[in-house]
Amino acid sequence: RHIALKQLGPLPAAGLDAIGPYVAGRGLSDAALGGPSGAVPKTVGFIPLLRRVKGRDGELLLVALIHPEGLANQLQLTISDPTSHAMLAGLDGRLYADTANPRLGPPLKDHPAFRDYLPRIEHASYRGAGVEPGEQTVAFRVSRTRPLVVLVERPLASVLAAWYQEARWRMLVAGLAVLAVAVLTWTTASSLRARERVRRHLDLAQAEEARSEAELSVIVQELLFRTDADGALTFVNAHGPAAGGGLTGALIGSRFEALVTAEEQASVRSMFDAEGGAGVRSATVTFEAERDRARRFDVAVLALYDDQRVVGFAGSAVDVTAREEAQARLTEQLAFSALLQELSPLPTSMLDLEGRYLSVNRAWQEFTGRRREDVLGRVAGDYLKPEEALLHDARDRHLLDVGGRLRYETVYTHPDGSRRALLINKVTVPGRDGRPQGILCTFMDVTELHDAARATQEARDAAEESSRAKSEFIANISHELRTPLQAIIGFSELGTLPGRSADRLVTMFPDILAAGQRMLALVNDLLDVSKLESAVGTIHLERTDLRPLLREVSRELGALLDAKQLVVEAGLPAAPLVAKVDPLRFQQVLRNVLANAIKFAPHGTRIVLVAQVGRDGGAHISVRDHGPGIPPQELEKIFEAFVQSSKTKDGSGGTGLGLAICRKIIDVHGGSMRAENMPDRGSRFHIHLPPSRTSGETRPAELTA
Questions:
Q1: Would you put residue 430 in left (φ > 0), alpha (ψ -120 to 50) or beta?
Q2: DSSP conformational letter for 105
Q3: CA pair distance 520, 495, nearest whole angstrom
Q4: How far apart are CA 245 and CA 268, in angstroms?
């Protein structure tokens, strides 16, 4: 049958029961879905009593059927008075049985017993209104085990009539009645007092029973057992095999010592010694299992006596395998952490909240020269100078107030008298309540690092001073060399005119003039390098049209072009090509690049000079020749000072300073310079300048190496 559970009322919680509403029908089959199978009288019904329990196959709902007619008959037989009206109802006023109405009526919520007494007063009697019309005498009492209340009503007239009927006989024995009333009054009062005491004791017993059940629910998780006087098991609770970690076989009748390892059997045998005296005997043993791993148990045994004679033992065993394994892992972890701290190359110490040492490692002892046993328990500032101790105390108080970690440098006076610079790291160690319980401190001796930093700075200063002296020397010697060179060149030029009449002089004076010019170019380059490195050369940027500068440089080098029958193809834009440059310095770069192209270009070839606006809006100038080109691995090296291409080390390449100076000048302009080889022989140099600002600006820019 499929039952509509909502007909039976709200389901109780697990382990509790609940009384449902009145259901029409002879049984649960009449409450099935689809209605009863046959006609059911309206006066026939039942009240469900529900309880939820856990079975082997899941949760079960037990239903007891309470028939109101049977309850009403029982009530009627109990009161044995046809004028009385008895009812059974719930504390919520729901009516379950009524001797005067087989078909249950409405709830009794408005009944005076529910309205004025229940649930505050569990039993009472009064004279007044009831279910029946007229004045009634009403009595009620609440069940101790269920939320039920029994009400009995009797018309006041019926009570008085019965009393009057009995009064005739009572008048005959008036004297005895007075005495009987007094005795009965005293007896009733005593009975009520005794009943109240019993009720209080019953309530206390019920509370004690509930506490015992709660304790038992915890104890039942343990292995409970009982043995005879020889230690043979006579009882093992249901939890025993599970707690034993796989103990199988017939445990009853087995000796308890046979369940443990051979090494522990002697100690277990002594626990079951009849001469061991009273009191609890305990031990931690290992239970062997057939399939599962062995497990550890705390066993407690108590001897049972019968007339001073031991008749058996009762005990329990608690599985402590997980606890011992956790303790072992914790011990290993603590030992590993202690070993790491001990082997740490950094001096490490642990302080409590009062600043006393709790632990120090080997590195700390070696650095301070103090033994661990001499400092543990002592305040850290005892062996420091007062000003050093005050500094550390202030830092520790701040760290404990704000938490987290702290890092600072300080100076420490070593026992040998030397002053050491220390980099200290401190962190608070929280306790179980989350509040700091100490400070972990590590430090590093950075004295040598500071000394090395000072030495490095001194070396840097010395190198800069040496470089400055070198630059000044180069500038001075270059200026000194230019004076005699000018004389040599001038007299060589004068000597070429009269020397044309003598054959020997025709070849000597041009050689002297060429050598002097080459030496003068070298001196000029040295002067440029000295200016760059000594930061005395400055440039002044201004918005300039680059086209006139390019044409002027081409005209200046016309004699060199004619000597090698070279042609410069200039591709210049029709519109002004504006950039922010220093005209003199920019022409120096162009002059050097074009001169190199002329120097390495074969006779009768072309040199292509192109100037245009680049992709970024800046100026882009390129110079292309058809010379020997540059090895790919040297395309960047040729821009370094005193570096020449391997293809021009025959002396035609100069000193190796020209391109280095050019790149530095372009770098100061905010641009870039690079070289590339062309597929059909030769190389091309690119000069990129940044876009010119529209606001126009002239400012000095310092040339630095």
A1: beta
A2: -
A3: 18
A4: 19
d(CA 384, CA 374) in angstroms, rounded, equals: 15
Q: How far apart are CA 304 and CA 489, in angstroms?
A: 132
Parallel, antiparallel, or unpaired for β 606-613 and 567-571? Answer: parallel
Main-chain dihedrals φ then ψ at residue 364, nearest 5 degrees: -65, -45
d(CA 701, CA 688): 18
Q: Which pairs from 610-613 meet CB under 8 Å and 24+ separation?
A: 610/570, 610/571, 611/546, 611/547, 611/550, 611/570, 611/571, 611/572, 611/573, 611/577, 612/571, 612/573, 612/577, 613/573, 613/577
Cα 525 to Cα 475: distance, rounded to the nearest angstrom: 10
Centroid of chain to Cα 316 = 42
Q: Which residue has the tokens 């972990």?
A: 440
> pTM of the entire structure?
0.33
The yes-or-no verdict on residue 248 having pLDDT over 80 is no
307 sits in the region (left: phi over 0; alpha: psi -120 to 50; else beta) called left
Q: Report the alpha-carbon angle 38-44-49, nearest 5.
A: 105
* Beta-strand relationship, 405-413 and 542-545: unpaired
Model confidence at 342, pLDDT cuts 50, 70, 90, reads confident
Count CA atoms within 13 Å of residue 216 on its CB side.
7
Overall size of the chain counted in residues: 705
For CA atoms 511, 515, 520, 525, the dihedral sign is: positive
pLDDT in tens, 49-108: 999 888 888 888 899 998 888 888 898 889 888 889 999 998 888 888 888 877 677 888
Query: What is the chain's mean pLDDT, rounded?
Result: 81
Query: Among residues 43, 131, 147, 133, which one has the least CA distance to residue 94?
Result: 147
DSSP character for 230? T
- Quote the strand ranges of 180-321, DSSP E: 223-228, 233-236, 280-287, 295-305, 310-319
Nearest to 668, CA basis, from 586, 547, 594, 553: 586
Q: Determine the 3-state secondary structure of 259 from DSSP.
A: helix
DSSP code at position 115: I
* CA-based max dimension of the chain: 194
Could you give the dihedral angle defined by the CA atoms of residues 309, 311, 312 and 313, in that order, rounded to the nearest 10 degrees?
-30
- What's the CA gap between 168 and 170, in Å, rounded? 5
Residue among 223, 205, 202 at smallest CA distance from 213? 205
Q: Strand 85-90 and strand 148-155: pairing?
A: antiparallel
3-state secondary structure 525-594: HHHHHHHHHCCCCEEECEEEEHHHHHHHHHHHCHHHHHHCCCEEEEECCCCCCEEEECHHHHHHHHHHHH
Q: Which residues contact 606 (CB under 8 A, 6 or more apart)?
A: 566, 567, 568, 569, 626
Q: 569 near 554, Cβ under 8 Å?
A: no
What pLDDT is stored for residue 590 in this prediction? 92
- Residues 6 or more apart whose CB falls under 8 angstroms from that of 413 comprise 384, 385, 388, 419, 420
Phi, psi of 232 (to 5 degrees): -85, 135
